[in-house]
Amino acid sequence: MAIDGLIVLDNTGRPIIQSGFRSTSTAYPLLHVDAFNSALSKASRPQDIDPVIYVPAYNNVESPSACCHVSCGDIRFLCPVSGDDPLFAFAFLRTFIDILYEYFGNVSATTMKENFDVVYQLLEETLDSGGHPLTTSPNALRDIVLPPSLLTKLLSVAGANINSTINSGSGLGAAGGPFSSPIPWRKAGLRYASNEIYFDMVEELKAIVNKHGVTVSSSVWGKIETNSKLSGTPDCLLTFTNARVLTDCAFHPCVRLQRWTRDKALSFVPPDGRFVLAEYRYSPNPSTTPASGSASATSTAIANLAKDNVPIPFSIKMAIDLEASGGSFDITLTSRLSTRPLENLVAEFNLGEGSGAIKCVASRGLGGFGSRLGMESGVPGNIGASWAFDSNKKVLRWEITSIPPSSVWNLHGSFSTSTSVPRPAHALQVRFEIQSHTFSALKVEQLKVTGETYKPYKGVRGRSIGNVEWRW
Amino acid sequence: MSGGQYLNSITENASRLGMRLQESFSEHTRDLTIARGASAAYLDTSDDKSKNIRKQLDSNSDREKLDAMKRLVALISKGRNVSEYFAQVVKNVASQNLEIRKLVYIYLLRYAEQEPDLALLSINTFQKDLTDSNPLIRAMALRVLSGIKVPMIGSIVVLAIKKCAADISPYVRKAAALAIPKCYELDSSHLPALIGIISTLLRDRSPLSIGSVAVAFEAVCPTRLDILHQQYRRLCKILVDVDEWGQVDLLNLLLRYARTMLPRPLVREDGVEELDTDVKLLLTSAEPVLQSRNPAVVLAAARVIYYAAPPSYLSKIVNPLLRLLTTSKEVERVVLVYLLAISKTTPSLFAPFYPRFLVRTDDMRQVKKDKIRLLLNVLNIDNYSAILRELIDYADDVEDSIVSEAIGALGKCARIIPEATQQCLTALITLIRSPHDAVVSSAVMVLKYLVQVQLSVAAPTGGSTSQSPLSIISHLARRIDDIKHAQARACVLWLVGQYAQSDEPTAGPEGIASWAPNVLRKIAKTFGQEASLVKLQIITLAAKLLVLCPVDRTLGLLTRYVFSLARYDLNYDVRDRAKMLSSLLAGVSPSGLANGEEPEERGGVVLRREQVRLVLFEGKSGIVDDEPSHLDDATAMLGSLGLVTGKPVPIDGVLPDWLENGVESSLRDSEDDALPQPVAPTALSSAQQQYRGKSMTPVVLTPTGTSRPNSRNESTSARGPWTDLDKFYEDAGDEDEDEDEEEESDESQESEEESEEDGNSEGDHPDPVASHQEVLNSSASDEEDSKEENEDEDSHLLDSGGWQTQTPP
Predict the structure, then answer these.
(1) Has residue A364 got a pLDDT over 60?
(2) Pure H helices in A365-467
């Protein structure tokens, strides 16, 4: 498995950074850049462009290849592959982009240009010239390629040479230089004044509600994001009170899989810094018997599916009236939560080709103070709801910053279209957040740290986000 | 500000900062903002500033050099050819500054090929670097050395690789493994030496480098799977501890090994699955890897199970693959194709999980299409009504191609599940009223398809549903005015003509269904405004009706009217069709079609009515099935580019088919089996406990597993362990020094330590003799013979310090 190289394009489609492409002809990367740019210009919506673009061979000697690409901020990462699994390319791209975030905080054309020498070094260390990934663990990389921190900038401006210390093998602090750590994902010789470890459980609800208001598909995917600042080589054991609700788990390489299978506890030596410890799916009704035989597994799976639906924390009533060259709509959203507010709710409604002339009123209905406060043309008033129309994407956005428990919100208005028959999307895309809440109510029972003498500070918090498609 | 000035201002700022560094950092933050912009400035400078580069590279100051190197890299990044600076750059290869050196390496790797002579100047430095105390420097030196494409240094590179392959740092050993394919590319005559290095590296205890060794193996000697015999079981066991990218390569290699060397898993008639222990070992090793966060690893493990496991294992890959769907849009797109391929053969696996495949309106086009296909694949009697409702919803999509895909799927639904037919028909008839052309035309096409299928299957089913096919046609015929889309209209007209025959007595012309002539009447009025596609069908309809009932006068007149219009149509297809049909019909209605003109003189044959009828009606009901998609191609592998792009990509690897019996299992017996050497990084080990218990069994003296009634084989395999034992007594004192991983402080420690003791007492070196034999002999087939030949040499080889000193006979 290998990829052919990596190209970073800015938003005008010009390459900023390119890996070596030593095993291919010089025309090869250009061919892929062209293929991508022409595919992008042909696509009616930029998100419709196929992530795997077939690139025919330009002569009889070469074989056809494919261009795998992902976008990230205002730049695009292209990854040509010939003959191997595109998933490998996407996995590498994901890893590389994560590394860039780790190094620069954000990824944009400006940061790439500012730090191009660091990016080149990173590229050299993460990708062998044959297209095989080398060192991709951020902990190990930080020893080899210095992140552009303020201090290193300062020192390099001042003419001091921080790299010579690495060169001599003594390294920074107590670390024994690159690759001295016996654990590939953890830096050696770490020392912190205060030892802390934080766990963020982020759960995302993905659901589809059909036009009759019935949830046809819903699942909750969770992630345990961890930030570890622990000295030495701590051995952590994380246990949950209700580990049974976790299914379809995936783990960071540091987690001892065997231990998890045996007693559903996460035993690991954490990497330093931020990392994703585990991913899981929340299953409200875990089957008591693990799926073994295919026949019984199937029947239990069906039974589970019926019960696996997680309730959606709001309900929507939509009345949409389509006429010739336009239409009107009336959308009412009611929170179903009883204690917490829904936050940063964004509902997107694609009005279709040729739509325009939007007139809307976003208002708050019954419940709570200040009912029936009208608002014209999207100026955010003090009621906390606003709307906007993106005339490029033809998307109407309705934003509500905070929805108190069981409050009612309304958006009604009209639009016109240049085509005689309006063709809006038949669904509303709703995204929202709920702070300090998890759908699974996953509870950490204990975090035991062994192998070190200190008592670390431990923090756990939960957060929920949702992405619901509500059809009408 | 010109570039030179700008540069000066940077250096000035820098030196000022350097002097006052101790005084205060905060005071100079504004200078820093200038420094921060500096890198971006490198990318934006124009070419005239590159003149200084040469001078800077020759200067004594590291800062100047670094600056020049950054400029060069920036120029490379912009796609310039900067090979002219090669000589100056090479001089800096020994720089004490690591950052400069790294940039020099980046430069050298790009241009060494073009300047082989100058590149040779740097070789001494690299050779010196190979002995550096820093593993990073050693690895980097090897990487650059092997990257210089100068054939004459081939033997130097081989020596360097050999040296690094025995390095104490696994990182350097990994670099050595990755250098092997490059060296092979450079000069294939080093193959025997390289294979030797690969088999040493295969025995590496650290899982860090093993993935790269697999890469080297695949690139250099993919057919020499015989080298793997002794390592196979150990490789399976350390799989969980290998780094994620290595896991992918190792899994692919092990899968290929299994398919080439191991017996095929069989399902006996009573349903019991027969599974070789070694295949089982691979499957149980691959299973925990399915929990990786890396999608490529999950797929590689799923591939192993899909291609090497008996059917009962397949359910294990379902949930991990489904999990990948939520990873990212791009991954979803690729995984869906693989799911499609799997669900083609075993739809029941995914049937209960259909809610995961429901289309969202914000999915990208390809994903929507694949999801609809997938829903069709998993359709069964339990979920059809839900899937049907979904498909009807998708017909509202904003995109025409998705609409037609969804409506097409509705039709196939009815075909797969006959119970769904009624629902499908109702839905389609509702869809015909849609204001959108795409919806109507697709719906009509699908209706036509359904009607034809139903009529061709059998008459009785028509009676069971309330809407018989003929009633659908009559329904369509009555709604001809509402159907605007040209293709849909043409389609309805064809249906009307084809199925207008009726034996029931009606008010209208005899032998024709009552609704049919009315369609012709209506459509004849609008003939002029129709698309030529529709016009063609109008003529056909008229001809068909006339053949069915040549005696009806009104019909005759209508037909004549239509034909005369068609005769003078602008489109020559329409004119030609009219001419052809009117000649065909000459025998049916001699007076009919010439519209009052004198019948032309005709030559040739005039067909009778029955013959015309045969020509017009028969052989038209053939149902065209979908064009075969690339997914039907059995050779398309999971995880291949060809499957994802839908176009053949020649490089795609094809897995070999199983051997019926596999090779002798005792070939894989090695001391490692007897030796419960804990998998190296036990501190992080997620390795499986159960192997350790099993591996405590002492050296196997008699072959286990499938033994063939071949006496020679038995004798060799029986002797194998004995020679191993001889060797092991000699080797027992040797300790592996490479254990740089620390021990696990887990509760499993006790048992591990026990087993470790057992293992250590037996020595922990794998059998170099066996591998040596394989190195010496180019093919697996004569391996047994060679064992006999080499047997006497064994002790001698060991005495002389291992196989490296030997040359192939």
Answers:
(1) yes
(2) none
Q: What is the DSSP string of A94-114?
A: HHHHHHHHHHHSS--HHHHHH
Q: Do B15 and A144 touch (CB under 8 A)?
A: no
Cα(B477)–Cα(B502) distance, integer angstroms: 15
Residue B217, Cβ density class (10 Å: 0-12 exposed, 13-18 middle, ≥19 buried): buried
Helix (H, G, I), strand (E, B) or coil at A207: strand
- The rounded distance, in Å, linking the Cα atoms of B302 and B607 is 64
Candidate from A204-218, A457-471, B621-635 with smallest mean pLDDT: B621-635
Report the residue from B44, B169, B688 with minimal CB separation from A258.
Answer: B688
The four Cα atoms B534, B538, B539, B545 give a dihedral, to 10 degrees, of 150
- CA B692, CA B761: separation in Å to the nearest integer? 16
CA distances from B265 to B262, B279, B654 (A): 9, 8, 19
In a 13 Å sphere around the CA of B276, the CA atoms on its Cβ side amount to 26
With beta carbons less than 8 A apart as the criterion, state whether B132 and B138 touch: yes
Check A52 against B644: CB less than 8 A apart.
yes
Contact (Cβ atoms closer than 8 angstroms) between residue A231 and residue A454: yes
- A 10 A CB-CB count for B553 gives 8
Tokens describing residue A354: 């040729």
C-alpha B736: how far from chain center: 40
Q: How close B690 gets to chain A, by Cα (Å)? A: 10
Locate tokens 């419940």: which residue? A367
Phi-psi group of A330: left, alpha or beta (phi > 0 → left; psi -120 to 50 → alpha; rest → beta): beta
Q: What is the ipTM of this complex?
A: 0.89
Quote the pLDDT of residue B768: 43
Q: Which domains does chain A have, with CATH numbers?
A: 7-136 (3.30.450.60), 197-309+439-463 (2.60.40.1170), 314-435 (2.60.40.1170)
The helix, strand and coil proportions of chain A, stated in percent and rounded to the nearest 5, come to 20, 40, 40
Tell me the one-letter amino acid at B750. E
Can you tell me the distance from the alpha carbon of B248 to that of B229, in angstroms, rounded to the nearest whole number?
20
| DSSP state string for A390-403 | ETTTTEEEEEEEEE
Please tell me the least confidently modeled range out of A144-153, A174-183, A209-218, B199-208: A174-183
Tokens 């898993």 -> residue = B265
B residues 143-172 near A, CB within 8 Å?
A: 143, 147, 169, 171
Cβ atoms B392, B427 nearer than 8 A: yes
